Structure formats: structure tokens, C-alpha cells
# Entry
Amino acid sequence: MKPRLFAKFAGFFFPLCVEACIPLIAAEREQIMLIRFTVENFLSFNQRIDFNMIASNEANLNHHIIKGKSENDIDLLRTSIIYGTNASGKSNFIKAMEFARHFIVNGVPKNENIEVHHFKLDKRQQPSRFEFEFRYQSKQYAYGFVIDKKQVNEEWLFEIGHQSEVSIFERSQNGIRFNFAYEILSKIAKQELLYEANHTRKNLLFLTNCKEREIEQFEMIYKWFDEVLNIILPTSKPVNIAIQIHTDFKMFFSHILKSFDLGINQINFDTINFEKTTQIPETIKEKVRKNFPYGENKAYFVPTSEFFVIEEDSAGQLKASKLTTNRSDEDNDLVAFEISEESDGTQRLIDFIPMLIGLSQGKVFVVDEIESSLHALLIKKLFDFMLNSQIYVNMESQLIATTHEIFLLDVKKLFRKDEIWFIKKRHNRESRLYSLAYA
# Structure
């Protein structure tokens, strides 16, 4: 199952400071952009649909593009908006991406079926197909798989260049074939790799098995799905988002919140005892303890009815800070507010702040129904902030969102034509996807 050929990509650089003198992370950044996602025979998608972030020749809003460094390099878009009416299938598109990501990152237990949902109106009951093409560390990869409820039928990993493609491994029902001449495979014992291939369960991806078995050569591919690609559903909270922190990250947090003109004069982070507080449910505490990136100078964001930032202290223990806001009364005195006392729109925007920080650190975020609990003007401000703020200049991060709000389809001031996609249902209840640039 071979992917298409595309150009190689050049490197890029990052700003050393951002507006209002708020520093970003000093750590080295990696190249991480999504190029293409395809899905076939999943939920309302019967025929293969192809979504991509490749820029057209349109001259409008050129700062929305991460340009290649040579004539052979692909220009990639920083944002895309996917429009569809209710029940058109736009949420199914996000569910397809989330299902594929979850299956890669978590796998399924032994002897259990794969909970894949085929297009039910096709009596042939063909397997489902998923593929991602992405840029990572100056190289472009295509990774995908074909599955049914019982097993992985196909799986492949290619490196794609401008004029050639290199198979790293290809899996079929006859086994896994490796290209041992490829550089990352040449660093591992051949017999070890063959052993792991032969002992990968039928219902488990080889890439997932490599993570479980700590085969480091494929860590960078797995890491893209686990750490770079983030998917936010209308009701989800970014409990598992861990971002790199620095000494002034709370100032950075404050700067983002104030940029949206919500009438908030000041924010505070009040330290509380992580282990003793009852404001964070024990189930979430346990998840944080289990998954916290100890020793990596990162923070976890935990939004419940309130909003907490979890960090590691110098002794390696977890500590929590609770976010509160201050607003001015009629006498210009500051009045403290709990996050639960703020409006639904303000609370939802606060939920998005870890995403905005993550975008400043080179991640890919996919948001379903971005208008959920947000006023139209706030959505426009959110995109405007990400596309025009100096914080994100030259940053190879991406924001992809679905919406049913037609006001966002502004092809002069807000988006380029190639950033706008449409999903609609056909007469046979099948969803189709197409770009405004090629309509």
C-alpha cells in the first residue's frame, strides 16, 4: 500500500523572544507538521476521503503558510477549517482521526476485538483504512494501516522524498517485510526485529508493539502520534496535555488570556496541596500520577469545574496551582472570581489556553466544533491570535477545526480558500470531503 510522492522539506528556525517580552521555551524544537490524512470505510465515510494541509498557489494571506526553503519543497498551511451542517459527517472526520491515533498509542488488550466502526450501508463489509503523512525532524513519513474487527490486515511505514519513496516496513497477512538497509533499521539486530515482528499480535499494530517492547528505533514515529497530534472534542478537557514550562510560563498564560479582552484584569495561581485537595477528583489525580512526565520540566493542565496547573517541585513531588481571576468593580477594586463563576465562553476559552501554549511549542491540534460555548467574535479572535501574534511567527504548528458556523468562511480576511473544506452527506448517507480551493 504505497503512498504518494511529495517534496522533501527544509529546516526552519524559531524566535528567541515573543511579544511583551514573554519568553518561549529554550529547548530545541522539532519539525512536526501534518501533511495529509486519509480514511476509508469508517463511520459515514465509505469511499476514501483525502484531507491535506498543502498550500495552493493562492496569493492571499501568505503569512498563513510555512514556506519550503527550495523550489522542490512543499508549502504547508498553518490552519484549516472544515465546515459542515449538522449530521454532515464533520464530527465523524474527527472521530476517524481520534480512533486511528488512539489505536496507535494505546492498542487493544489481548484477545479483544478492535472497536472499528465500518460504513454500515455497504454490504461488502470491507476493512477500514487510515493513513497519516507528516513531517518530522526534516523528513516526511507516511504511516498507515488497514484493519477489521479481528486483526490488522496491512500496516506500512515509508519515508517519502521528492523523487523517491523508501519502504521502512510493510505488513500483510503473510508477515512483516523490513528494509534492513534503511538507516534506523541498520542500528538494530536483525534477529531481534524479526522476533518482535513474529510475536506481534494480530489485533495489535507493529508500531504499538515496538513502543511496548521499547524498540527505540521507532520511538520518533510513535512520539508524533502520542505527543504532537492532539485532538479536542466538544466535551473533552485537556487533562493529558503536558507542555514544556519555563520560569515565566504563568506570565505567558496571563498574556494569552488578557489578549482576548474578557474584562479580566489579573489572574492568580494559588498553590494548594495536590494530594490533600478534594477539588481534583481522585480518578484524575491517579491519571496525573501515572502519566506525569517527571524530570522533563513540564506541566499538566487539569480543568475540572476549576482549573489547575500541576508541576513537579525540586524534591520530585507534585504540586498544584489553582487559577482564579480578578475583575474590577464600580470602584475599581479587584474582586476575585473562581473559574466556575466565569461565563461558559470564558471557561471554554480557558480550556483552550493549554492548546494555545502547545501551539507555541510546535504541536498539531485538531478541534471538533470549535464554536462550542464560544461566541463568534471569540472564535475569530482565537484564529487571529494564532495566525497573527508574534508568539507564533515561524512556528511550525497547526490548528485544524470543524464548525457549522458559516460566518467563519471569510476568504478575504480570516482564511485562504485552500484552508476551507466542506463535508456534506450524499443521497446514500455517505459523507464526502472537498476543498474550496478546488471546488
